[in-house]
UniProtKB/TrEMBL annotation:
Catalytic reaction annotation: a 2'-deoxyadenosine in DNA + S-adenosyl-L-methionine = an N(6)-methyl-2'-deoxyadenosine in DNA + S-adenosyl-L-homocysteine + H(+)
Family according to the record: Belongs to the type-I restriction system S methylase family.
Keywords from the UniProt entry: Coiled coil, DNA-binding, Methyltransferase, Restriction system, S-adenosyl-L-methionine, Transferase
A GO term, aspect molecular function: site-specific DNA-methyltransferase (adenine-specific) activity
E.C. no: 2.1.1.72
Statement: the UniProt record of this protein carries the keyword Transmembrane: no
Identification of the protein by name: site-specific DNA-methyltransferase (adenine-specific)
Domain Type I restriction modification DNA specificity residue range list: 403-568
Amino acid sequence: MNNQNAKLNVLYQVNRDEASIIKPIVAGEILLRINKDDRPITKKVEFFSRIFSCKDKSNIFALQELQNWIKDELDDVEDNKLFQTLNYIRKISSQDLIIWLNSKVKHSRIERRIQSSKIDRLAMKLALVKRTDTILDPTSGCEGAWLDILRENKNQQVTIQEINPVLAGIAYLNGKLIKANNLNILVGDVLNDPKYIEDGQLKQFDKVISFPPISMIINSEVINQNSFNRFRYGKIPRRGDYAFISNAISSIADNGKAVLLVADGPLFQSGLAAKIRKNLIDLDLVEAVVSLPSKFLLGTAIPVNLLILNRNKGAFKGKIQFIEADQNGWYEKVLRNFNQLTPLGIEKIVSLYQNKVDQSGVSRVIKNSEYKDTLSVKRYVWPTSIEIDQTTYSISQQNLMDAKMINLGELVEIKRGYNVIRRNENGDTTLALIKITDIDDLVVKNKALSEISISSNPDRYLVRKNDVLFSIRGTLGKIAYVDKSLGNAIANANMVILRPKNNNTNMKWLALYLNSPLGKFFIQQAAGGTTISIISPTDLEQLKVPVIAREKQDKAVEKLEQEKLSLDKQKQELMRKYIQNDNEFFNSWGMDKILHKED
């Protein structure tokens, strides 16, 4: 932080009770400087008069919102407080003032300061912006990739829309300070009322770069109205990620491209989200997904990605690229809970994207036909090493690709556990309830099971002998083989029951495999979730299992059990000798004559 910003922050802290007045005063001072008005001010009414004398026909609404905010915030401020602050900040450069102001305002829908993480710059480079391109950011905030683009080309035609009037006003100041010539600032909710309309139609752009709010609950009425037929790729879920994605696609020209920031969830979620994803794949709109390391947004550990959509993929038609950016040297820690991309990381990601190359553990190109119901990068780009149970394993990519595997769903039925809620806890049927905590060392501790009474038919939830229980939420991949009848016992909703479809699978072998390092590797790759790890039954169906004949499975399990019995006997004998050795030492001074062991 430079000295000027430090001075402003001191002022901000000293006047904490009146901190709200400093931001509009700073904004007003910047506005006056932009209009080259450096005349002395002696009265607050004069300050307001000068502010409202500023005119700009090209961005009249953003300017008006800024002017109104400044007046509303300062209406009740005493003249001497206004002048004291003005005199202080007049010693500070406009550049330092705007940097400070940007850092003190919050994004309209998600609190984030993403500029310093360099994602803006990466998005701009992935969009491959040409100097003649028209650019749209429909959820702009007060700064972003759009501002980086204008810094490089003041004549770029850029349109932004922001729902928060104050941020739109500060965006106006940002654009003016860098002398942007073709910046069009619109104010309003883009889902409800897109403002970039031309001849009654939604205007389309060469490039759309947008970092929309993550997992925001949206108004279904707005989506149902479907103005300009923007939401035509499938019914929009309750959370708005795909509303913003659909809006972005509808806003790009026939040869256009969109780069959007999205969380992991929209890339793998089932239901309505999955249907939209499939439609985007079928329309060949998805060009690439870049998975970024964790902690790239301030205040949250939610993993994020850059989703690249392209209406004209050219020679890349029918293909999708996946890039894993969590690589050594590609990012650095700048705060305790905040990472940012390095110049090397940006260069490497852009190079991989431009050249569309496969690189082990980093990048993979697939055909659309290879799409596996998810756009999660880790389902396609496998790491070169992985840590499992505090042991690091290197991964032979070629051997993994060559291994003969089958999907778990071809071997077993996957039955959901019972969802315990208050209204169904009372009923005529009393059952034992198996929870994740009841599983230990591949077995169910059935002596400790709690009981529940339910009114619905429990048959489909009952656990049978020879089933395998698998946890799919929270503590993933906790496994138990049911080697005997547990009576009337059901699994809770955090687990599924794996039941053999035929006699071709030794279920104990399957449980042992799923609990092995290779099984845990595939489980980790299939896992999703932002705050809680989950595996959907659909993803679990696609979990890879080695193709091994039943006879070999039986022999492997039998050998393992025999060896364990032998080793257990040896262990018991060693423990007996260990205790005997201790006793001989203790009794060497006659302890056995004083202390006698009771049977």
